[in-house]
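Example record used in the benchmark description.
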Amino acid sequence: MKTQHPDYILIGVLVILVILGVLIVYSVSASFSQERFGQTFYYLKRQILFGFLPGAILAFLFFKIPLAFLKKIVLILFLISLGFLGMVFIPNLGVSIGGATRWISLGPVSFQPSELLKLTFIIYLASWLTKSDFSSLKERSKNQKKGINEKIKLIAFLIVIGLISLFLIFQPDLSTLGLIISIAILMYFSAKTPFWYTILIVLIISGSLIALVELAPYRMERLLVFLNPGIDPMGMGYQSKQALITVGSGGISGLGLGMSLQKFGFLPHPIADSIFAIFAEETGFIGSLILISLFLIFFWRGFEISKKSPNKFSKLVALGISSWIALQAFLHIGSMIGLLPLTGIPLPFISYGASHLIVELIGVGILLNISKTTI
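Model output (structure tokens):
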């Protein structure tokens, strides 16, 4: 095993994505930042001071931290993230916005615990899936021991997913839950567990998600609006309709940075949940294609890092982080161009919000840490 330089292509992609994020956040927020706070840089300064700078510092720390040590402390990190997830339901501590209780407020600082959960769960799952046979099964034959171990892993996997699901369902945050479950299933399958176990997990979780949609009328309404946007164009279908108008307004080359018209009260949540639509309006098809290509390159480099990783733990962590960033990006983009229902999840490195940016930068720091060491 030898230590080498980190993946420079991945670093280059990250730098470009962060720069694009800074530019588009300022472009979208400048007008209403001036209107509300008397300065055009208010939201940009907050994004840099509370998001990018602490994220960059923590990313460097996790770039340097030994991966073996990270594996040892990951259970503590995962339990802390679960604790934060439960704290959103504590009165005067949890913050409700738009009927969803997903934030914790600590004085002037607020953050979204589910963002931290994405990363800690990926690392915890990688650590757990790479553990050797349980010591209590030592007396059994090797094949029998392996079969029992796989069944225990299956049951434990479903229990952990069920626990996370309870927290996120009551917030509610089904988009994040769907993202986490998708990554978990991919990692479980990649750990060379029995194939039919993966099929069983998919069937169980699919049935549960269908039941959740049917039990909550607003979720069924969103699904119906997605399938037929014309049934409620000024209600549930308004954001989807405006997002398509915004994306289409950009044409081939876009209107130019800062020239978006839809951000002036026409498109809901232009700085966060709908930021890709504004990006597409201002940079056009060409800019959108470049952005999508950057996320594809990000996933390609992460996948290559996973393939070359020296051990199973590193392989699964690299696969989980790269899949998380890429899948979240395409869920966001897909919801803006009508390929998927509205998700409400941020576009990685681009959307306004400190919580997701900090955790995403930490994730890249870990990915670059893994990329330093190859066989």
